[in-house]
Design brief:
With 157 residues, the chain is mostly beta strands. Helix content is 6%, strand content 44%.
Length: 157
């Protein structure tokens, strides 16, 4: 009998790392899907012979998020935060002054703090190290009665 070997590929998604160069804005209306609009920037530096770095320019891309995750990100992030956005690159097309314009944007499914750039404090509830002992209200008492004792039948000795 042959054994089938199953191989699974590691899932990966495009990401952009940078800083929020524009404060996140809410672009949705009440009762509609939440839309977050921001901008991610990246600074480019040249390493000089004396060991210093010289800023040579910056690049920016529009960032959008839709739905519940966007609402959470809007509450958590501000301009200047170092972030990692996970999602996909897309093109936004619109008309301005009679001209058709196409701009790149990044549609994020997740927005995370870039912990490799700064120290962040994470607040969470403490983990339970010991199993929880149920309270009296959580335990239902069960009456236990042992069966009536039977007469022992000996082997005749």
């Amino acid at each position: 009998m042959s054994e089938e070997v199953v191989t699974m590929e590691i899932r990966s998604e495009p990401s952009v790392r940078g800083f929020l160069s524009r404060a996140p804005e809410q672009k949705s209306k009440p009762g509609e899907v939440f839309l977050l609009v921001a901008q991610i920037g990246q600074k480019f530096r040249r390493h000089e012979e004396d060991g210093t770095f010289t800023l040579v320019g910056s690049a920016y891309i529009d960032l959008i998020m839709i739905g519940d995750k966007a609402e959470e990100a809007f509450a958590d992030f501000v301009k200047g935060d170092d972030v990692v956005a996970v999602g996909e690159f897309a093109k936004r097309q619109y008309e301005q002054d009679g001209q058709r314009i196409e701009r790149p944007q990044f549609r994020a499914s997740r927005l995370l703090f870039d912990t490799s750039r700064a120290r962040y404090a994470v607040e969470r509830t403490p983990r339970q190290l010991e199993p929880k002992t149920p309270t009296a209200a959580e335990v239902t008492a069960v009456e236990f009665r042992s069966p009536e004792p039977r007469l022992a039948i000996g082997l005749g000795r």
